[in-house]
Amino acid sequence: MSLSHLEDNTSLDSKRTTRPTCDHPFQETPGGKCIFSPKEILQGSWDEAQQICGFLKKDSRLLEFRTADELLDVTSYLSQNDADCSRWPSGMRMNIDKYNVIKSVSATSLGILTKFYFSGGGPWIGAIEVGNTNQFIWSSDNSTVVVENWVQGQPNSPSSGDGAMMSCEFTFEWMDKSRDTVLPVLCEVEPRAKCPAQFTAVGDTCYYLGNSSIDWNAAQDYCGILAPNGKLVELETLEEIYLLTEFLNKNSPDR
């Protein structure tokens, strides 16, 4: 009997899987991104939203876009599946000065001001402004936002260090908002790779339990033949030992 496994950090290509998978409650977009937003249920400032993503799942963060394909994929997905803007609160809280301004203008101007103050319901994403420059970076690594999708005239917030959000009313184009604005979160997490044929997922690792008895060298070679980066089991944590022992007790009680 031989027992082989694949390293959890093996790429999707090397595992030769057809599709990535997303852990609940994250949903998979057609392009393979794992995203989740509870919309009006969980809201917060930009910094709180980033923390909420981390609480939902380890290594989760506010959504970031590195390529035009990713941007098109997620924007199209939201437009098709989450276009009910009533479920995307704007988080705009008028103060008395703004209220008094609106009372004093004409009906035509009122419509314009109302659209300005209340438009932009939608979720935070992971871009933040550098000072008051209207230049944005991705918070995870401070890299410059290259692929952009701003509403015409944006970014234009007078405050400094703003956050970026996707506006439902503008087909999920971007607007900049003060980071203390309360908005829904839009989180992402890396997809989990499916196990290759014959392997079984146990925790975060893929295992194969062989039926024949062979020597150690032959077993190691066989693991490499079964799948790229396959090798005999190496247990590095107590959790791995516990999960694998439980798996073996259930699947090979007589071996």
Automatic annotation (TrEMBL):
InterPro entries: C-type_lectin-like (IPR001304), C-type_lectin-like/link_sf (IPR016186), C-type_lectin/matrix_domain (IPR050828), CTDL_fold (IPR016187). PROSITE patterns: C_TYPE_LECTIN_2 (PS50041). It comes from the Eukaryota. PANTHER family: C-TYPE LECTIN DOMAIN-CONTAINING PROTEIN 180 (PTHR45710), RH26557P (PTHR45710:SF26). This is Uncharacterized protein.
